[in-house]
Amino acid sequence: MRVLVVEDNLDIQANIAEFLEADYILDFAYNGDHGLELALANDYDVIVLDLMLPRRDGIDLCKAYKRQANLQAPILMLTARDTLDDKEAGFAAGADDYLTKPFALRELKIRIDALAKRPKIKNATSLRCGDLIYDPAENMINFGPFSKPLNNKEGVILRLLIEAAPNVVSSETISYRIWSDEPPNSGALRTHIYNLRKILSSLKTRCEIETDRSRGYRLKERSSDE
């Protein structure tokens, strides 16, 4: 397994190297520009990314990697920032998991192993469900001549639903992707689903979000005669 670690703290780098080098092939970058260069040039199974980096911070690196990489490795973001807003920004940028400093090296390894089991995501300039096109780079829905911008949470939800369609995406999966393990009140996800439904309805697309009350949500395309 090949892992890229983008971390500017040399002591943390040394500790990670000592603990993980027996199990993984490790590459290290000291700043965001070098990290992005390595991430785009090589095929990694997991990228461990510090949030606070010189030259290019982790959020900007993550966004650039998600835009440019053809085959995307899952990203584990490291940070001393532990507020919900910080985690939300990381997940909105495309991070797949979040680990707050200081952390146990054993937990780091457990999370890397778990992320490595996920299939890599093939980048697409656009995602389609029937007559609906979603542009992840611009976070925009396109339907015929009409376009509608989404906020970050709506974009995360729609992408998950399109990629899984016509299968159900559990409420827990959507919630974790948006808020990690610190979700707000139970009605927050329903509010975002409601707003996304209103947007789809306003565009008069045949794609609609269907609720599976025991499991979660799915994106469904109505037939033309409905």
Low-confidence stretches: none
C-alpha Rg (nearest Å):
19 Å
In round numbers, the mean pLDDT is 87
The CATH superfamily of the largest domain appears as Response regulator
**CATH first level of the largest domain: which class?**
Alpha Beta
Spatial order of the strands in the main sheet?
2-1-3-5-6
Fraction of residues in helix: 40-55%
Structural class: alpha/beta
How much strand content do the residues show?
A: 25-35%
Ends distance: 49 Å
Series of H and E elements: EHEHEHEEHEHEEEEEHEHHEE
Please give the CATH architecture of the largest domain: 3-Layer(aba) Sandwich
Overall domain count: 2
Number of helices: 8
The main pleated sheet reads as: 5 strands, parallel
CATH topology of the largest domain: Rossmann fold
Oligomer: single chain
Q: How many beta strands in the DSSP annotation?
A: 14
Care to describe what's here?
It is a single chain. The protein has two domains: 2-121, 3-Layer(aba) Sandwich (Rossmann fold), CATH 3.40.50; 124-221, Orthogonal Bundle (Arc Repressor Mutant, subunit A), CATH 1.10.10. It is built from eight helices and 14 strands. The chain has helices spanning 10-20, 32-41, 58-68, 84-93, 105-116, 152-164, 171-179, 188-203, and strands at 2-6, 25-29, 46-50, 71-72, 75-79, 97-100, 121-122, 127-129, 132-135, 140-143, 146-149, 169-170, 207-212, 216-221. The strands form four sheets. A five-stranded parallel sheet has the order 2-1-3-5-6, with helices on both faces. Helix 2 runs parallel beside helix 3 (58-68) and helix 6 crosses helix 8 (188-203). It starts with a strand and ends in a 5-residue tail after the last strand.
